[in-house]
Amino acid sequence: QVQLVESGGGLVQPGGSLRLSCAASRSIFSIVAMGWYRQAPGKQRELVAHITRGGSTNYADSVKGRFTISRDNAKNTLYLQMNSLKPEDTAVYYCNRYPDTGYWGQGTQVTVSS
Question: What is the helix, strand, coil percentage profile of the chain, to 5?
Fold first, then answer.
């Protein structure tokens, strides 16, 4: 079982940026597709972005043009660069395989507020 640990969240003002990281316990990013997901209070978890084995990326309409998913296979790390953050981006962010496995880590909290 691969362990995934998210980090990089925090409190940021609207319009600010954050970069989230997802460290894997072993090399998998070149083997499976990966995704970033988020869950806001009172809402269902949703897919934010995913990256295929070949490196193709896809984004939810709500984040397109503002978020960028990437990976560093050598470091076994997945990233989510988030720019022009909005209050509605406030959520706990998770990484997981795409499609997800149903098992979730702790996630990292992102709060966008002035």
Answer: 5, 45, 50
